[in-house]
Structure formats: C-alpha cells, structure tokens
Amino acid sequence: MESVFIIVVVLVAFFFLVQKRAAKQVPLKESQYKLKGSLLNNNESVFYNALVAAVANNGVVMPKVAMSQVIGPKSGNKKQWFIANNRIARSYFDYVICDPRTFEPRVVIELDNGKELDKGKIERQKLIIHVCKTANLPLIGCHIKHSYQVGRLRRLLATHIELIEPEKEVRFCKRCGSPMVIKVAAQGEFKGRKFFTCSRQPHCTYTENYNVVFEEDDEL
C-alpha cells in the first residue's frame, strides 16, 4: 500500500513538472485573458450585503475564501498530511468573518440557497463541518431567506463576536407556549455559549440552541 502511495505522488509531481515546463516554452504574450464577471452571483451578493450590515464595524466579511488560506492539516506523518491537505486544496468557505484589526478568522458562514443538495454538495458540506469542528472554528449555516433578516443574522453572529449587539427577540416555548429566556451554559462542552430555555423551569425543561449549524426554520 505504501509503495502505491509513493508511485501516485511521483506521478502527480511528474505531471506538474511537465505542465510547468510546457508553459515556459510558450511566450507570455501568446496567453490572453478576459474577465469572467462578478465574483458572486445575485443571491450571494444580496446575502453578502446583509452580512456586512449585520457585522458593521465589528468585523470584515470576506467571500469565497480558499480553505487552505484559513486552515491547515495538523501535524502527522507525511502520508496523513498529504491526504488531509489534498482534501481541502480545492475547496472554499462561502464567507469568513475576520477580526477588523488582525484579520484573524472568527466565524465561517455557509449559505444554503434552498436548492436540493447533490452528492458533491453533500460531501462538501460534510467536509466543511468536519474541518471547522477539528480546527475549533465556529460555523454557522444560513438560509438565503436570511438575506432579508439582518436582525436574525446579527443575533446568530453575536454568540461569536461579542461587540455585536443582537436585536431583542421574543421566543415562545414550543412545548408549553411560555416566553423563553436567554441563559449562558456554565459548564460542559458548551460552556460560555448562549441558549434559550423555557421561563417555567423546572416545570418545563424545553431548550433551544441560540444558533445552530444549518438550522431549519420556516419563519419568514
């Protein structure tokens, strides 16, 4: 198995060397280029503008960011590193919100355009969830309808960007109908994270995530 892996690496390296040499033999002036158009489609642009409004001066919104610019494989043997790096080499994050001073990534935003996912998109979604979890990088999934709900976006982001003040939101318990209140987890895996809980506790123990990955919400 090890020998097969070495052969594959050698063949890939040889392929790139041949391509590089062939490119050098063609004069630069013979390569002509043209603009492809907007970096974002209409839906992506609308959502980008909503994110900018929600973040304001508390962050920098960057669209279509290559994964390899944000994360990298953890240390391991060469084979493991090569496989891990190859998995993210051609993928990207829809949006990355960075600290406005240091440009350190704070939150990754993935946009759900509402269309049915094909096999390729499902695999990409699994990859994004995995890399964000292992890199301890917060990930929020948003539906395209959030483009028109800046207040909701602000609330989702407030969990990870403290300077953002979420708009007041009233939620009602789906179990008993009572108003819900916001609390902060004092211990456990989600220590420090906000969540909604029923105001009738301990009589009603219903809770909801303050924000979830790829949440399903039918409200408009």
From TrEMBL:
GO terms for molecular function: isomerase activity; zinc ion binding. Residues 173-220 form the GRF-type domain. Signal peptide: none annotated. The keyword Isomerase applies. InterPro entries: DUF2726, UCP028063_topo_Znf, Znf_GRF. PROSITE patterns: ZF_GRF. The keyword Isomerase applies. Gene3D superfamilies: Bacterial Topoisomerase I, domain 1 (3.30.65.10). This is Topoisomerase DNA binding C4 zinc finger.
